[in-house]
Amino acid sequence: MFWNNQPSHQNWSGHPFDLNRPIVKFSDRDFWTIGDSFEGTQIFGATGSGKTSGSGQTIATTFLQAGYGGLVLTAKKDERATWERYCAMTGCSDHLLIISPQSGFTFNFLDYELNRPGVGAGLTENLVNLFTEIMEVAEDKGGRGANSEEYWSRTLKQLLRNTIDLLTLSQNTLSVMDMYKVITSAPMDFEDIQSETWRDESFCFQKIREGEARTHSYSREQDFEITARYWLSEFPGLAEKTRSIIVSSFTSMADSFLRGVLRDMFCTETNFLPEMTEEGVIILIDLPVKEYGDIGRYAQVLFKYIWQQTIERRIITQNSRPVFLWADESQFFISKYDQVFQTTARSSRAATVYLTQNLPNYLTTLGNRDIVDSFLGNLQTKIFHSNGDAVTNEWAANIFAKNWQTRTSQNQSINRDGDWFFSKVTGKSSSINSSESLEYTVLPYEFTKLRKGGHHNNLKVDAYIFQGGRIWQSSGANYILTSFSQT
Ligand SMILES: Nc1ncnc2c1ncn2[C@@H]1O[C@H](COP(=O)(O)OP(=O)(O)OP(=O)(O)O)[C@@H](O)[C@H]1O
Ligand SMILES: [Mg+2]
User: For 99-155, how does the pLDDT look when each residue is reduced to its tens digit (9 = 90+)?
Assistant: First the structure.
């Protein structure tokens, strides 16, 4: 066991951002490097097990000390104060950029997407994915089957794609308000399209006329034809129920961006950029989900997605500054794109750290176990604090397990027909059964016994740590039992 997790930096003579530089000490002989941090970290532990104040605090202050820039998402109200303290402790308070309704920092995400360099053919698809990413975190995945979900998301994407294309083909700007107006003024049936009044009043129809009057490149002209056909034929022909589901999925999300905090912070001017983290700035979005609910979630998932793509696009040199993505209570922010991001995180020098109580927390957001498993498979360092959740404990015990053991047993039963010799002698027959079972090296219940910090534990928090493909020096095993100090 080890008490002080900060390695001595004096001995490091390489570049401060070298992949091999050790930044956390898990034992006298086991170090965690900058390169390890890019492979992603998942911290599990029950409420009050010491995730935030133990391993979380150690890793967060280590990143700050090492000069990482980063994005911090917030679920609890005290997250901001926690990071203000971390920054004060590590002397980087002036790198902390708090984004809150009072701070005056604003970011127009649609302008940013429309005007960033390299944008072009991919714009519509990227925006479609951005909106579905936000909408998916707010959806309850429990009640829907896989097929209906696929159909639903395909139809919703089609709606978004045609809304964005109609606007970009008929005018030079894009806003959530205009998207909202297109969708809510679209024809509900074929009678609408025949109606002179509808034609005069519909914003959607007005945009079709304007798009028609414009000259486009050959390929954009094709896009326009498809879009016009969608609005004048496919959309009014959709089953009433399907249409109302996709329209309300969009409008209930978009509604939040048309008023209050989200409009003011994300649909007006831009005076800070995700790229700032590449220079060492720590952007903290102070819209904690516990206080702002869905609005906090929409804003943070939106900014996270845009930030992840910015980081993926950045030009990396050998020792580019590392960046991190931090989400305590990560079940509120986890989304499909995280997996894509994680697959290239090492080359974009980005360290994701997600903290949550247990594995079932992710099931609610991601919808099924396969997606959760594959997501977790991509976060290589897994830290397990004290936990009473059976699913998480068993899952952890399984990844620590030494090997599969074949157990054999012999069953005997009265012989009826066959096994002539054996039955002649004994009057019974026998069969050999074999079954495979995992030999645990750490039993699931061991996770219930770890220290959770506090004064009665001398401010020590215990954790088992696993890192994909690593055998730890001090334990000779694929896991290590270590301690973090809360001071
Ligand atoms: N500096 C400190 N001194 C003493 N006790 C502390 C300190 N920091 C945290 N604790 C206590 O240690 C325990 C672990 O707290 P911590 O907030 O780290 O848990 P957590 O795993 O993040 O929980 P949650 O899931 O609720 O966020 C709690 O009982 C907390 O009150
Ligand atoms: Mg916590």
Answer: 999 999 999 999 999 888 777 667 899 999 999 988 887 665 543 444 456 667 889
pLDDT per position as a tens digit, 11-55: 788 999 999 999 999 999 999 999 999 999 999 999 999 999 999
Q: What's the CA gap between 110 and 12, in Å, rounded?
A: 44
| Nearest protein Cα to ligand 1, atom 24 | 47
Quick check: CB of 352 below 6 Å from ligand 1?
no
Q: Ligand 1, from 53, 483, 486: best to mutate by most atoms within 8 Å of Cβ?
A: 53
Alpha helices in 139-259 (DSSP H): 146-170, 176-184, 190-194, 196-201, 203-213, 218-229, 235-237, 240-257
Task: For ligand 1, say whether the CB of 452 is within 6 Å of any of its atoms.
Answer: yes
**Interatomic CA distance for residues 270 and 292, integer angstroms:** 22
Q: Which of 185, 168, 178 is nearest to 231 (CA)?
A: 185
Rg (CA), the chain: 28
Do 298 and 256 form a contact (C-beta atoms < 8 A)? Answer: yes
d(CA 189, CA 240): 10
Q: What domains sit in the chain, N to C, each tagged with a CATH number?
A: 22-105+286-401+444-485 (3.40.50.300), 109-261 (no CATH), 404-439 (no CATH)
Q: CA of 289: how far to CAs of 176, 269, 301, 325, 418, in Å?
A: 22, 24, 11, 17, 69
Say whether pLDDT at 229 is over 70: yes
Residue-wise pLDDT tens digits, 253-305: 899 999 999 999 999 999 999 999 999 999 999 999 999 999 999 999 999 99
Residue 132 near residue 153, CB atoms below 8 Å: yes
Task: Quote the Cα angle for 25-322-296, to 5°.
Answer: 100
Q: pLDDT tens digit string along 179-222? A: 999 999 999 999 999 999 999 999 999 999 999 999 889 999 99
